[in-house]
Amino acid sequence: MNSKTIAEQFSEYASSLHYEDLPDEVVHRAKCLIIDTLGCALGGYASDPVRIARELAANVTSKEPASLLCSGEKTSLDLAVFVNGVMIRYLDFNDGYTGKEAGHPSDSIAALISTGEVMHADGRALITATVVAYEIFCRMCDTLNIKPMGFDHVTLGAMASVTGAARLLGLTPEQITQAVNLTVAANVALYQTRIGNVSMWKGCAYANASRNAIFAAQLAKRGMTGPSPVFEGRAGYFTAVSRQPFELAPFGGGNQPFKIMECLIKKYPLGQYSQSVVEAALLVRERIRSVRDIVEVHIHTLETAVSMMAGDPEKWRPSNRESADHSMPYAAAVALMHGRVDRTHFEDPYLHDPELLELVSRIRCSVSEEANRREPEAMLCDLDLTLADGRCEAVRVEYHRGHPRNPMSNDEVEGKFRRLADGALTKRQSDMLLSQLWKLDELADVGDLFALARID
């Protein structure tokens, strides 16, 4: 049993991990995920939530200005983190991790690149802080599932963002502990964000958690203390959120694997639980002449996936992008009808296409006990198709493309980035930014990335 508090364990890890401790494959994986994350930001730049966030950030100036991705506008550090985080998350295309809890650790990269810019950190510092944030997020996901208590995974994301950013801010171990105390005490988010009629806030919630985390780290740097022990205390996290004490597994390093190696990269712009479903639908589509021949589609997958992505009426008739990209039946219908799924399919005219919605009505989703048993090792989907001539087709997908057991190649990661950047950056700009990101460990100042990612 560890004698240190959870907050102290976070601090100790953030303070003690060094770039030189990272194996080559971990450094490479961090580069891949940062490339993927910045590509998602470029793809999300023109969205309404980003416009709203940018307008708000434009009202604020700072003596320590931080840049907004793509536009290059300046604002305060915490608001830059918020805007950049919304940009990253909007398309629901950035990475994922599944343990007992699930979420998107790359959302924390918004806090890290902005802090790195303000502190003139180098690329190696950014890579190390990224690995720290991934360790915190993923180890917490492995420890407990907070959804049944009504809490959202961004509650864990705030912990990851504050720990990684506090390291970049140069906080002492005691200050990092206090930054964690302040963050955990003040940031408990509701799971309602991701169920029912999903709103714009779905893509903003982690960005807001990171914004609050940055504020806490800035306070701690100036001497502010937070409630302690924030996890173990009589009215702390164990009592209010997890409802039970827990211990963390050892963090990555030494003989322990790094969690960043277990994160997925999405091939499709939709919730991570539907990646296998869409891949199965695309595979089975190759065996049929027309979607009009389909009598019924039956999807068997994880209970969590069915509950989150097919458990509300809104998921069967989504009225907005946020509900559609979190709808398993809608995503499957798009794949079956169009033979591809891209970011345009979650907007009109597809969103209200009567033929597409009629196909949605022929889909059933049910829980697979085998899929439940194999979670999180696999993201199993069995898809059965019944055709008008009585024929049945069945497809199984265990490890979708981008899953850590079926990873994308460097070329695939780069191709995804280029598709997302198309229309925002010129080919020459994309070439220059990608070249620098692949050589991130040689970068002298993280701020140079903002100049390279600026839309002319």
From TrEMBL:
Pfam families: MmgE_PrpD_C, MmgE_PrpD_N. Residues 8-245 form the MmgE/PrpD N-terminal domain. GO terms for molecular function: lyase activity. It comes from the Bacteria. Residues 268-438 form the MmgE/PrpD C-terminal domain. Belongs to the PrpD family. This is MmgE/PrpD family protein. It comes from Caballeronia udeis.
